[in-house]
Every structure is written in C-alpha cells, then in structure tokens.
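Give me the fold.
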Amino acid sequence: MTSKYDSKESALEMGLYYAGYEDPKLRKKVMADLPEPVKRQIGWPQNKTVETYKIRTPTGKNVQIGVGEFRDGFDLWLIVPKTGICQRV
C-alpha cells in the first residue's frame, strides 16, 4: 500500500531517510541544499508527473527520489538512476 505524506517536505525527508540519512538534523541540512527539482513523467501505468531530485547518499552513491501529488497529500518514489526503474513507497 502506498504511503501518503501530509506535505512535500515530509515525503522528501522520508526519501532522504531511505537514502541513508538517519540523523534528523543531517536530513534537514541536506533538504536545505537540495537542487531544484526536475518534473518528470514516471510510474506506469499511472504515468504521473512528479518532481524528481538527484541526491548523493552518505556513502557517495547517486540516487533519485520523486514526490508527486497523491490523493489529498503527496507520495514518494524511489528511482534508480540511468535505468528509469521507479518504485512508489
């Protein structure tokens, strides 16, 4: 079942947690330094538009997360760079 987040920020914060940022203070710092999002179509068969963010994990790997409108809140997508494979969580 898909998680629904009350705000875009709470979805992003959970995405950073999944990326390896366990410390809440560090997540807030990373969130403040996020690049501008890129709008992208993802999620067959939904084919919805989400804002995607490229981030570097604490171990130095590049990952992407996406946040989109979902019901009366937001959802979170984990995206594998270069492959386009994505999973809504």
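Residues 8-88 form one domain.
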